[in-house]
Automatic annotation (TrEMBL):
It comes from the Bacteria. It comes from Acetobacter suratthaniensis. Residues 15-247 form the ABC transporter domain. This is ABC transporter ATP-binding protein. Keywords: ATP-binding, Nucleotide-binding. The keyword Disulfide bond does not apply. GO terms for molecular function: ATP binding.
Length: 275
């Protein structure tokens, strides 16, 4: 399958990768990816089928997996930075969160902030403010290991935001959330990105969320970039068929919202292959 040639990034603003490759044993998971820039101040999506390399791309951009190539944030190379300096600039929220410790939610927020910043007098009110904005202030003193999956995902997001990174890399951040919290988190991330110039990149499976909330998206397939640009422009019927094996198109509603209309799927050989 041909890949879309992606020219090296022309601007220094945002997050870009150049020649990024990741191997696990004999398998190449990401093939020399040059991509970006993901712009600051808006929400961006990483899309693609199961096993296409989305989590690996996010982990490589965040420095959590050994990779060849460059990761540039506003022109500054993140690869090669000392761990703490990189953590201050860029925060990655993985798809599966580590087994929670028997700490309170508030304590985990304070600990997460310490990864990147020295302690400050207003750390506790600031952490409580994030829980408030996330809609989970009532959980502040609950032990993390007693929370539901969705509640833990919200705490993880509050931890990430409370670190005030310049780039936030979120792997399926909405996967355990009910519709109220999905909307609330998207609105909060969009507000924060616009306010602070954050580069916010999310792995998403829900194409409607990408269409309606994200200004820029990249589509991965078999460890390569198939498209990069505005979701409404790149999610064509031909691409949806080639990538997801669905017969689908994007319709526009009366309020200007976009939504996927799926007519059918191909059912043969559906098991995602190792790339
Ligand atoms: N530690 C590992 N060792 C070997 N192979 C791996 C490892 N991690 C991921 N892979 C392989 O790399 C490929 C990409 O995995 P990745 O988790 O990045 O996909 P993904 O697009 O995030 O998938 P999903 O949508 O299912 O979460 C898969 O084929 C997977 O089996």
């Amino acid at each position: 399958m041909n890949t879309v040639p992606t020219a090296p990034p022309k601007t220094a603003t945002g997050l870009s990768v150049q020649g990024l490759s990741v191997r696990h044993g004999h398998h190449t998971i990401l093939h020399d990816i040059t991509l970006g820039p993901f712009p600051p101040g808006v929400l961006c999506a990483v899309l693609g089928p199961n096993g296409s390399g989305k989590s690996t791309l996010l982990r490589a951009m965040g420095g959590l997996v050994p990779a060849r190539g460059r990761v540039l944030l506003h022109g500054q190379a993140l690869d090669g930075l000392p761990l703490k300096a990189r953590a201050r600039l860029c925060c990655t929220l993985p798809q599966s969160l580590p087994e929670p410790l028997r700490l309170s939610v508030l304590e985990t927020l304070l600990a997460a902030r310490r990864v990147a910043h020295p302690a400050q007098a207003d750390d506790i009110p600031a952490a409580l403010g994030w829980l408030e904005r996330m809609g989970i202030a009532s959980l502040a003193l609950r032990p993390l290991n007693e929370l539901s999956g969705g509640q833990r995902q919200l705490v993880g997001l509050a931890q990430a935001l409370s670190r005030h990174p310049r780039a936030l890399l979120l792997d399926e951040p909405l996967s355990a959330l009910d519709p109220h919290y999905q909307y609330r988190v998207l609105a909060l991330l969009r507000e924060e990105a616009a306010r602070s110039g954050l580069v916010c990149i999310m792995v998403l499976h829900d194409l409607n969320q990408a269409l309606n909330w994200c200004q820029t998206a990249c589509i991965l397939h078999e460890g390569q970039v198939r498209a990069f640009g505005a979701p409404r422009t790149i999610l064509t019927p031909a691409l949806l068929h080639a990538i997801y094996r669905i017969h689908a198109c994007v319709d526009t509603g009366t309020q200007g919202q976009a939504f996927m209309s799926v007519q059918g799927v191909e059912t043969a050989d559906q098991v995602p292959q190792k790339v």
